[in-house]
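Hi, here's the filled form for the chain we discussed.

Project: internal
Contact: R.S.
Residues: 264
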Amino acid sequence: MAEFEDISVGVADRIGTVSINRPEKGNTVRPHTLAEICVGLDTLIADDKVAAIVRRAEGKHFSAGADFAFLEQMEAMSGSEIKASVYQHFQGAARRLYHCPKPTLALVQGAAVTVGCELALACDFRVLADNAFLQESWIRLGIMPPLGGLFLLPRMIGLGRASQMVLRGIQVKAEEAERIGLASEVVALDALASRGAELAAELAAVAPLAYASVKQAMHRGLETSMEAEWSANVNNQAILLKSEDFREGLAAVKGKRAPAYRGR
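And the returned structure, exactly as it came back:
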């Protein structure tokens, strides 16, 4: 596995983990950080032994946003340079999480601001510590959320609440995040790692072909019509019904045992 400077990547018990490891800087991110996250995610997605992926961070914060030194550097960059080199990595990380065929889980403590918030939103599930908050404060810098939040938030929590987050930069604390559907669940800070491991193990046991198909269909459904979904999902269901995983799932239910899916 590649060596990293800003992150760490590991695999244990079929769970892959990508951790930002800049606690002394509040886990703020720079292009180098996101480039490493892209490499780490590519490695875990390609690894057949990895069944679920956890995004986490060391220290007090999930990510307090973009590194200010990097933000100052952008003033000297042209628009085309920003688009070509910077967001290749920033948007690249969000794309990898959102489109990942494997389950993705964000474990969030402390601040998840701007980039940190958007990368958490790109995951399938978010478990928040009770001290966590999400904040899309881009507008306070005179810029906009470019990594998916403007698409996802109105669909997750409605236009009104999304407007509060992106047009006013309002913080959403853990308890409210769970109430409005931004957080899958909230746990005590000292229980975050153990609950994350438990949920990741649950997700890793799900039939992988079915998970990938359902996730893709839900994402597609955000942009298409019901008729298009009926048509696409009939085809996908026919493929799944011919899979070994379906036969194993049926046998497990009939035999009252846990299934052992193989992703084929």
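Let me know if anything looks off before we file it.
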